[in-house]
Amino acid sequence: FDVERKGADTRIDVCCAAKPGLLLSTISTIEALGLEIQQCVISCFNDFGMQASCRE
């Protein structure tokens, strides 16, 4: 995964093998860090991919 932070904005890119519950776990972790997802693109075909733009 890759995280890029600029001021109050954070961009998160994740790509890994798909596992049941991974999406819920990822979203829960982002929220637990105090980030609010502003925009998100998710792919769950052969692997799991997510690009999220977040704000504190």
UniProtKB/TrEMBL annotation:
<dbReference type="Pfam" id="PF22754">
    <property type="entry name" value="bHLH-TF_ACT-like_plant"/>
</dbReference>
<dbReference type="GO" id="GO:0043565">
    <property type="term" value="F:sequence-specific DNA binding"/>
</dbReference>
<keyword id="KW-0539">Nucleus</keyword>
<dbReference type="InterPro" id="IPR051358">
    <property type="entry name" value="TF_AMS/ICE1/BHLH6-like"/>
</dbReference>
<feature type="domain" description="Plant bHLH transcription factor ACT-like">
    <location>
        <begin position="3"/>
        <end position="52"/>
    </location>
</feature>
<dbReference type="GO" id="GO:0005634">
    <property type="term" value="C:nucleus"/>
</dbReference>
<protein>
    <recommendedName>
        <fullName>Plant bHLH transcription factor ACT-like domain-containing protein</fullName>
    </recommendedName>
</protein>
<dbReference type="GO" id="GO:0003700">
    <property type="term" value="F:DNA-binding transcription factor activity"/>
</dbReference>
<dbReference type="InterPro" id="IPR054502">
    <property type="entry name" value="bHLH-TF_ACT-like_plant"/>
</dbReference>
